[in-house]
Amino acid sequence: MTLATKRAITAYTFLALPLVFFICVRLGPMLYMLVMSFSDWGLLRKQTRFIGLGNYVTIFSDPVFLQSLGNTMRYAIFGAPAVIAISLSIALLLDLIPKGKALFRLIYVLPYITPIVAVSWVWRWMYLQPPLGVINELLMAIGLPAQGFLNSPDQALQSIMAVNVWAELGYCTTIFLAGLQTIPKEISEAARIDGANGRLLLFKVTLPLLLPITLFLTVMEGIQFLRIFTQVYNMSFQAMGGPLNSTKSAALYIYQKAFTNFEMAQAASASLVLFVIIMTVTAIQLKFFDKKMNY
Amino acid sequence: MKARKGLIFTVLIFLAVVAAGAQTVTITYWQYFYESKVKLVDELIKKFEAANPGIKVEQVTFPYESFNQKVAASIPAGEGPDVITLFYGWLPMYVKGGYLQELPPAEFNKAYFDKTYYPFVAESVDFGGKYYSAPTAVRTLALIWNKKLFKEAGYDPNTPPRTLEELVTYAKKLSKFDAQGNLVQSGLLMQPSGQGHSWLREVLFRQFGNLPYSADYRKVSYADANGVAAFKWYTDLITKDKVGYPNFATDDVTAFKAGKGAMNIDGSFRIATLNAVKDLEWGVAELPSYKGIKSNYASYWTHGIVSGTKGKKLEASIKFLKYLTSPEVQELWLERVGELPATPALSEKYKNDPVVQPFLKGLAYAKASLFVDEAGQRTVFVDMIDEVVLKKADPAAVLKAAAAKEQAIIDNFWK
After folding, report:
1. Pick from A36-40, A42-46, B246-250: least confident
2. A121 interfaces chain B, CB cutoff of 8 Å
């Protein structure tokens, strides 16, 4: 055995452990879920039979499931780009200031490192109706009418989305800042000598060089918003995803199917649908950005 | 030689353990976490164990929200408790799921339940002549009011509204708004997700001359003209009179405790909670009547024995269940938790207690809805009220759609 083979064997051994773990706690249950999604497995039924695509028919004819899918897409389509745009702006501004960068960075990252449950509840209270909610008090102090926020079917989703955007900013800003620091000074200096102004520098040099990081963050945030659960669970009344299912995400629908209605197989089917959506969205994002990267 | 000695020793120890194990039976008891109940049961277990040497009881509790999840995950796997206390609205689900075993029919039969319990209890624990559970205590609804806010509004703090008409007048006068017209003090707290859905379901519908369900609760029938009138009366309080709205000041109990709500419809289980609030002067009255019709909603938690429990454990479980439902425990339950004895005779001596009496009166004519999916059926009501309040939908159309939705839940369960 050569030294190289020995080394390779050692490496494989170390790599095998996480692989076993992955197969047992991720892949195994996923395959089981796939199989069970074709059955009528429910905790209240004594026997489980295979019913083909029956569960998929059931969930796709359930208006609440369709609504939760729509809500999920809304969270992702508006939430993820908002996080990227705002955090990029903050990172660019932070990069400009000579002093106090660490302090600002800390302020922006704080929401991200705070537990989501705590963040959700504090915001839930701030969103309350008069006479209790801070935000409505502020609105009224400047002469604006009080808003429904979490109590209104038209505003609740946006209210929850805003909290998640705010919480995710810290993470994205930090990554963008790190990305900005990897851009060699020589490139921007050369551009300036060639006569590029600030705007040209931003659009032709900085942003293109940040593209790989932007891609990474878009994918991560896309997944994050598509899987949104904790915020909705904690911010909607009695964790129902209301009012009138207006904030219910696909993940919360799955949870309720499984642990309130005990329809495990229907929950499995819905999970699979969500899984396919996340995979598709991610694949599209990767493909789209991959092409543009070769500028 | 040495090895053999060791083996004999091990076998002897094993036999000793088995013998000791045979002498003491340990049973597990589950209930949801409600502080006063958990503390009381801890004491009851001590008394029970002293009276029954050889039986040990272990109490395990879970939060209300996750209780059914624990049950559904554990009992089919044979991991669960021996004795369990569940909300009566979950009984059909538990019985259908095969989680509970029939109580010994020699003792727990129709004659026993008819003799021992209120009629609504005897009706709702009966599954085709089979009995799977027995309760200790029952609860009803009542009107509770804040005496201080009554005084402020110029009302006699000891005279609550007696009829629905009076209730509306009082509620309007007790509501306060800010300059922008936002409600800052609710005259009558409107919380469908709390007791509000039961008030509408079993009280208002009936008072407006509607029969909300067939006798066996398998047919929904509240979507007629009288039902619509009741439903409209309820939602008008929110949309027209604006005396309260769902989730005002987070929820009705919080609002009432904080003095932001003047009146509420709540259950007898809240007595201990409200007594614990300093400086809160509150009164209890029978639910307001309408056109001379009185109605009330009763509910209870009930004790059953899990299907996998056998032999010695089963014997011990039956003993424990009998103890939990005994007159002695029923009285302790009222003193310490606030829930009323499930045996009518035991309430006699409390009939002059100002706090307990209104709840007791309600028991005489209360109905206990037979739920098949308590959470799902509650959501139907919460959502139909939201449809009218938040989306300005037409009450008659909404009620019709809701009735169809609830009917589908019921049909799906019994199919």
Report:
1. A42-46
2. no
Structural domains in chain B, CATH included, are 28-139+299-367 (3.40.190.10), 141-297+372-414 (3.40.190.10)
Judge whether B408 is closer than 8 Å to chain A, CB to CB. Answer: no
Best of B99, B182, B239 to mutate (most A CBs within 10 Å, chain A): B182
Q: Which of residues 202-261 of B touch A (CB under 8 A)?
A: 245-250, 260
Place of tokens 């739920």: B371
Which of A44, A45, A131 has the CB atom closest to B178's CB atom? A131
Q: CB-based contacts of A50: which residues, under 8 Å, 6+ apart? A: A38, A39, A40
Tell me, what CATH number does A167's domain have? 1.10.3720.10
Return the CA Rg of chain B. Answer: 24
**What is the span of the domain harbouring residue A190?**
37-293
Question: Quick check: A130 contacting B, CB < 8 Å?
Answer: yes
Instruction: Give the span between the Cα atoms of B404 and B219, in whole angstroms.
Output: 10
Dump pLDDT digits (tens) for A107-149. 888 988 999 999 999 999 999 998 889 999 999 999 999 999 9
Closest CA to B27 of B310, B317, B304, B308: B317
- ipTM, two decimals: 0.84
**Facing A44 at nearest CB: one of B93, B249, B391:** B93
In a domain, A96, yes or no: yes
Q: How far apart are CA A199 and CA A205, in angstroms?
A: 10
Residues of B in contact with A153 (CB under 8 A): 386, 390-391
A153 and B248: CB-CB below 8 Å? no
Task: Report the distance separating Cα B263 and Cα B173, nearest Å.
Answer: 12
Question: Does residue A3 lie in a domain region?
Answer: no
Residue A116 sits at the chain B interface (C-beta within 8 Å): no
Measured CA to CA, the distance from residue A162 to residue B259 in angstroms comes to 32
Instruction: Tell me the DSSP string of B225-277.
Output: HHHHHHHHHHHHHHHTS-S--TTTTSSHHHHHHTT-BSEEEEEGGGHHHHHTS
How far CA B130 is from CA of B51, B106, B125, in Å, comes to 30, 11, 8
Please give chain B's pLDDT, 415 residues, in tens. 555 666 666 665 665 555 555 579 999 999 999 888 999 999 999 999 999 999 999 999 998 878 888 888 888 788 889 999 999 999 988 898 888 999 999 999 999 999 999 988 988 899 989 999 999 999 999 999 999 999 999 999 999 999 999 999 999 999 999 988 999 999 999 999 999 999 999 999 999 999 999 988 999 999 999 999 999 999 999 999 999 999 999 899 999 999 999 999 999 888 888 888 989 999 999 999 999 999 999 999 999 999 989 999 999 999 999 999 999 999 999 888 888 999 998 888 888 888 888 999 998 899 999 999 888 999 999 999 999 999 999 999 999 999 999 999 999 888 8
Q: Which of residues 113-132 of B touch A (CB under 8 A)?
A: none
3-state secondary structure A135-195: HHHHHHHCCCCCCCHHHCCCCHHHHHHHHHHHHHHHHHHHHHHHHHHHCCHHHHHHHHHCC
- Helix (H, G, I), strand (E, B), or coil: what is residue B212? coil
* Chain A environment of B239 (Cβ under 8 Å): none
Residues A244-248 have a mean pLDDT of: 95
Domain count, chain A: 1
Under a CB-based contact definition with an 8 Å cutoff, are residues B407 and B223 in contact? no
Beta carbons of A127 and A159 less than 8 angstroms apart: yes
Per CB-CB distance under 8 Å, the chain B contacts of A245 are 383
In a domain, A80, yes or no: yes
**CB spacing of B72 vs A262 below 8 angstroms:** yes
